[in-house]
Each structure stands twice: as structure tokens, then as C-alpha cells.
Amino acid sequence: MNIERIGTLVILALIWMTFPIILVGKEDGYANAVVQSLFLFYWSYMGHVYAHNISLEYPLNIINTHVSLHHSEVKNVPRWFELMIEAGSNFMGFYVLHIAQSITGIKLFNLKLILYAAFLYIGVHIFYYSLTDNKYHKVHHETSFKNFSPEIFDIIFNTRKNNVNYDKISMINEIIPALISYYLVVYIFKFSK
Ligand SMILES: [Zn+2]
Ligand SMILES: [Zn+2]
Asked: In angstroms, what is the span from residue 131 Cα to ligand 2's centroid?
């Protein structure tokens, strides 16, 4: 594991977290914004791990489209359709937090950040990982219990499969989805008022 790559991942994490701070820092407090976004990034990792774990057995291996469709070798639907379904299930993976908060009345996360995290996950997974054939993510498709990403969490939780030949992290491909997610949230809240 080279130190330069870890440095890049840390810088990236800081950039990813800057947008949540701008989005809700004033509203919820800056420290709170940091804690919320850290948890939501952890959630994107954990949710992915959990999605694979619960789908080891029937019927969840069929019902969970992330496993039965996105990870399946043979796609019985067009790729664009499969990726749309994947984006939808990614979105729901975050939106359940909002649903749970509405039902219980316990509000821990700002909806703005739930949406930001959902869009960011979709952006990185669909546009960067799936459409550019990213090597790091390819390993996840060959060995489902490795390289869940974000990569920094794979390092922390020891699910990273080491390989010196991974493509260099493309900052552009990682930052643009964050930027788009940020603006999407800003516009959604602007027009829903
Ligand atoms: Zn994938
Ligand atoms: Zn997966």
C-alpha cells in the first residue's frame, strides 16, 4: 500500500466532506455536519457490505438486484437498464434513512446530506466505476467481498485487495460527482421551497 495513494485518498475524503459542511454547516453546526457526513460515508461502505452479506442465501440473492443483476455475469436486460436499476437501489439505500427518520420522528441526518451522499454514491459507482471500467472496482466484481469502496474504508476494515497495478485514482472522476451532487441538492432545495 503506497503512502502516496493513501495521501490522495485522505485529500479526496476531505474534499468530499467540504460539500456537506457548506450545505448544512450553518444550519446544523459545523462539527455536526462533519459527524453526519462521516457517518454517511461509513453507511455507503457498510450498506454495501451488508447488501452482499444478507444476499448469500435465497431469496435475498434474487430480490437484491445489486447482487442478482449488477453483480451477475449474465445480464438479461440491457446494460443501461441494469445501471438504472442499480442507481435506484443505491438511492433507496440512503433514502431509507429519511423514511426511518420520518416514521420514528428521530432526526439525526439532514435530508440534504442524505441526498448528497446518495447522489455521490451513484455518481462514483455508475459513472466512474461502471462506465470507465475502473480496475479497483473490477476486483469487487470478481471477488464480491473485497474492494467495496470508498477505498479508504476498505483500508480501515481490511477489505482491500492489494494490487500494485490499480489505475491511479482519478481525482476528476471522484470530485465531479461530488460537485454535481452538491449542486443537485442546492437546486432541489431551492425549488422545493
Ligand atoms: Zn459495480
Ligand atoms: Zn457490490
From this structure: 15
